[in-house]
Amino acid sequence: MTETPKNVLKRHGAIPFKNDIRHPAADVFFDIFSKAEMCSELLPAIKYEPFEKQIFNGEIAYFHIVHYGAFLLCPHDAKEPIYLSPGDIIFAPSGVSHWIEFQGTSSQRAEKNFPGPDNKITSGFFKFDSVGGQALMLGLPKFLHVSSRPSIEPDTLGSKEWLALTVAAMQKEMARPSIGSAIMLSRIIDLMFIWAIRNWLFTAPTEITGWIAALRDSMVGHALALLHSEPGADWTVEKLALEVGQSRSNFANKFGQMVGDSPMRYLTRWRMQLAGKRLRSSNQRVSKIAEDLGYDSDAAFSRAFRRELGLTPTEYRLKYTE
């Protein structure tokens, strides 16, 4: 009889790993990020001349990783530039048009004549291959900037050390590509994006809204975790309010203010994202998917799906599985 992994660990005296780092808010983020299907691609290296500008047009979500040299990022629709130093990373998730200018190194800026460009910045773009990516983007700022520069605030997240190690890993993989390099670089970019979101949540003002920001609130975060853990349950606003220990009106008002959607509207959106994922990746019957997601009839499910995604479940499956 084959031993289970748990019994093997016990026989060898190993201490089982307890996944204590997972908590309701983390589960909600994991659900949405994993179903968003992020993919990224690095752009060809650009050699910046001193004070040369490179334009990055909108409608594409770009990211930039500064290895060395000082850069200035200027959004086309904003007055305030963003200063980028070696070790910084910045993502533009909403596809804001911007340009980047090489400012020179500190020694070069001290001289009137540059001896030559001394800079390196890795740029690329990313997108999401499912409608879940739209949910992920909701509530994010135009730019997610993680700075490596010293700050008067304590580095509670350990960003400086983590960033240095991650950027170094990317540089090494790009300098000496081998088997699986493309996958490794893609995963590194995933990590940087998640870290940028975490850093933003930690430093952003308390009044920001959106489902990601709502994870910081214990009551709304708990409600989101319930909706994600049991999307097919017969939820109502009253039931959710009872679960989080609030009156119906207080709960509904706070949820709407923080998330930007009513609880039931959010649940419908989440159900349809789950349905889309299953339609694309499995041969399950539409009726089975509808039942699992809390719909009593195929017709009601199809109407909700069409309202959300613009296609019937059958049309959606045909379009995205060809």
UniProtKB/TrEMBL annotation:
Residues 221-319 form the HTH araC/xylS-type domain. SUPFAM superfamilies: Homeodomain-like. Keywords: DNA-binding, Transcription, Transcription regulation. InterPro entries: AraC_lig, AraC_XylS_family_regulators, Homeodomain-like_sf, HTH_AraC, Tscrpt_reg_AraC-type_HTH. This is AraC family transcriptional regulator. Regulatory protein of the TOL plasmid xyl operons. XylS activates the xylXYZLTEGFJQKIH operon required for the degradation of toluene, m-xylene and p-xylene. The keyword Transit peptide does not apply. GO terms for molecular function: DNA-binding transcription factor activity; sequence-specific DNA binding. The gene is soxS_2. It holds the Pfam family HTH_18. It comes from the Bacteria.
